[in-house]
Structures are given as C-alpha cells and as structure tokens.
UniProtKB/TrEMBL annotation:
<dbReference type="GO" id="GO:0006729">
    <property type="term" value="P:tetrahydrobiopterin biosynthetic process"/>
</dbReference>
<dbReference type="Pfam" id="PF01329">
    <property type="entry name" value="Pterin_4a"/>
</dbReference>
<protein>
    <recommendedName>
        <fullName>Putative pterin-4-alpha-carbinolamine dehydratase</fullName>
        <ecNumber>4.2.1.96</ecNumber>
    </recommendedName>
</protein>
<dbReference type="InterPro" id="IPR036428">
    <property type="entry name" value="PCD_sf"/>
</dbReference>
<comment type="similarity">
    <text>Belongs to the pterin-4-alpha-carbinolamine dehydratase family.</text>
</comment>
<dbReference type="InterPro" id="IPR001533">
    <property type="entry name" value="Pterin_deHydtase"/>
</dbReference>
<keyword id="KW-0456">Lyase</keyword>
<dbReference type="GO" id="GO:0008124">
    <property type="term" value="F:4-alpha-hydroxytetrahydrobiopterin dehydratase activity"/>
</dbReference>
C-alpha cells in the first residue's frame, strides 16, 4: 500500500521542488508550464506520458495551445506520496533538457 507523505515529509519534498505549488484542498502539487507553441507543449506531454506509463503513475493535466497545467496526487494514498515527488522530479528533468 502506498502511504501519503506526512506534513514534515511533504515540507521537505516541496523545498526541493521550487517550481511546484502545494494544493492543500487536493493534497497535491501543481505546476504550470508555457511553451513556444502547441507542438512543443504536445511533445513535452508525450515525453511525460511515456514516462508515466512506465511508472504506472499518471498525472492529471490540462493543455490549451502552448500551456500545460499538471496536478500530481496519489489516489490510492488519498494524497501526496513519494510517487508524486519522483514524478515531479522527472518532469522537471524533462523541462530542463
């Protein structure tokens, strides 16, 4: 069973994810990204989708033209888990490429 992060674990994890915001209502983290155009945004989403499928951990997200909004939470844990932190770090690595 996947456990939700404690408050201290969440605070420590968020310190290492400066581009992500905490959504208290969902016990989730969010990030908004803006790309040059739709093709670049969709290319990013494709990379994340392939990674998420391998990890069997899928983001909630929304795309409008060149903007992508991502929300990460673990439904099985009813909140933020280590899996979300790992996914956020992997997403940040893709953005930084």
């Amino acid at each position: 069973m996947i456990e939700a992060l404690s408050e201290a674990e969440r605070a420590d994890a968020l310190d290492g994810l400066p581009e992500w915001d905490y959504d208290e209502a969902r016990d989730a983290i969010t990030r908004s990204l803006v790309f040059a155009d739709f093709v670049e945004a969709f290319g990013f989403m494709t990379q994340v989708a392939l990674m998420a499928e391998k990890a069997n951990h899928h983001p909630e997200w929304r795309n409008v033209y060149n903007r992508v909004e991502i929300l990460l939470t673990t439904h099985d844990a009813a909140g933020l888990s280590g899996r979300d932190i790992e996914m956020a770090e992997a997403i940040d690595a893709i953005v930084d490429e």
